[in-house]
Amino acid sequence: MNGKPLPVDPPELLQKINFKNPYNCVRNFEVQEQNSNSKDQHAQRRLVLLRVLGYIIIHASTLNGDGIVKDVENCNNKEDFLNLGEHYYTHFIYTFSKFRDRTPYQSKQISRPSYVNLQEAIQATMTQAPQSHTDAKKNALLRDGYRCVVTGFFDAEVRNITNWRDIVGTTWVIHTECAHIIPEGILTSIKNNPEKSKKTSHFGAIVQSIGYGDLLNEVNSAQIHQLDNVITLDRSVHDKFDRMELWFEAT
After folding, report:
1. From 176's CA, which of 50, 189, 227, 241 has a CA 20 to 30 Å away?
2. Do the strands 176-180 and 230-234 form a parallel or antiparallel pair, or are they unpaired?
3. pLDDT tens, residue order, the chain (251 aa)
4. CA distance 199 to 204
5. Residues 137, 140, 142, 148: what is their CA dihedral angle, to the nearest 10 degrees?
């Protein structure tokens, strides 16, 4: 699956030339790739990487996150753009996938992005996040009214309420799960694990580069299980969420 083609003139970039020019460079390579009708085994992958890069630029423009702009400006050719797209895919997009602990597709050696010093600073100051998944689920259930926020089905815990039958009515009662937006595992088990610590610092540097500020340390200090980072979902919905087949958009 190649994903949705990059739009010609995204409205988010109309007044932001510093984002528009790098975006147009990425889109030009995407159009070239699409028009080439290449049949080699990595053709679809190249389209995906260029589109990931393009859409992240669009999103970063709404947050004034110019770190990715600097990374794009450091690219000299198509291979550089593909490597940068692979970097953002592996250390940002892939982090949210339930398959994140498996080995992702690897391109050629990726040159270090412009935020490398930021990445090293995050790695140096990162601390182990406390673990309280059970409490997080209880708090999320209370906030979400004992329901999956997508299907509206009630969690079985609602039966602990005296008048639960009046509350539930004819709605199904199921077993929900506590889903984390920023994955629970990203801040756990990093102590004495240099490889995982490195992956986490890459992720933290990227979220800063696209405009989310020091989000990783905010979540770390407030605990990964804080209410802003968890949501109550039906098991099947949670699975789709972790597979990135379902997502939420701000309204």
Report:
1. 189
2. antiparallel
3. 567 899 999 999 988 989 999 999 999 999 999 998 877 878 899 999 999 999 999 999 999 898 999 999 999 999 999 999 999 999 999 888 875 544 343 444 444 455 454 455 545 544 443 357 888 898 899 999 999 999 999 999 999 888 888 889 988 899 999 999 988 877 765 666 777 788 888 888 899 899 988 777 777 645 788 888 899 999 999 999 999 899 998 77
4. 9
5. -100
Residue that the structure tokens 């077993």 belong to: 175
Q: Which amino acid is at 86?
A: E
Instruction: Decide: 158 and 167 in contact? Cβ < 8 Å.
Output: yes
With a CB cutoff of 8 Å and minimum separation 6, the contacts of 202 are: 91, 119
The Cα 209–Cα 114 span in angstroms is 9
